[in-house]
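Example 3.2
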Amino acid sequence: MVLLWLGAGVLFLGFLKSTNAAEKAVGSQAQTSPQQPGVAGQPPAAGNPEVELKELKTKYAELEEKHKHLTQDRDNLLEQTRRILKERNELVDLTDSAKKAVEEKTVLESRIKELEGLLNEAGARAGGASSELSKAQARVRELELKLEQAVAEQSESNRIKKLKDEIAQGERRHKELQSEKKSLEQRIQDLESRDMRELVEARKEIKQVRRDEGDLRKALEGVQGELDKSKKLYADTVKEKEGLAKELAKLPSRFSSVAHQNERLIRETADMHYNLGVYYSQQQRMDLAAREFEKVLDLRPDDASSHYNLGQIYAEHVTDRAKAIKHFEKFLHLAPDDKDAEWVRRYLLTWQSYYGKEIIK
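Structure, written as tokens:
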């Protein structure tokens, strides 16, 4: 490899020397050539056109012959270069044999000398090809322009490649969006299916509620009938009470039996209002239930159950803490050992601690 590169360097130096020698020869010939006779500043007199054309054809033939020789020399050089490259490849494969490499080195040196001679001869012949050199330089400039255009096209190609990459990225993003769209559509279908199931269940519940409402209306009508009977009984009782009061005033001796009967009527009326309060509580009509329990307390102020029920209504439904605490305190006073007394105590402890003394007022 080293020998090969040395040989190529020698060839290149020989070519440069021959080229410089040819240029110097052309320059000296131009300086020593005699000038045509004529007046200074004026072109020479025109000769015979046929003679000039013949001379030009002769010069052109000479140039063609020189060009032919140069072409042959160039082909020979190329052939020699190909052989050298082939031998370089052989040298790469046979670097392990030092002795053979030395012998081939000698052969290559002799061939390099031959090539130097050929290069010198080609350089001498190149002296008459200055015009071809000018054309070659013009061709080089043209190739340089084409190279610049190719660089610009390469830049445009890079920009197109970048755009293609962006398009590919956009297509990948489009695929991802399509996948997300399918996922969302599947989710929407699942939600619609679930909503449809919930709708069917809700319709079933509505039907059940309507059936329950019908049953409640029937029960309410029955209770309303009983309430009407109770009101009528209450009115009759009031009238009877008034009559008994009159008779009591007239008949002091019957006072004891009338008082007992009056207590019985009051107890029955209170029980009627209590039962109505329980019914309205079950129907979640807490305002009517509270009113009925208040009527029970009007008749029986010490009814512990009515105080407890009113405390529950004001604590959990109507949310009037002051009334709830008042009724719960009365309930504990009347029934301290009731099964619900412990829960009532915790409730009072919680809310009295929260509100302080203000709630007690």
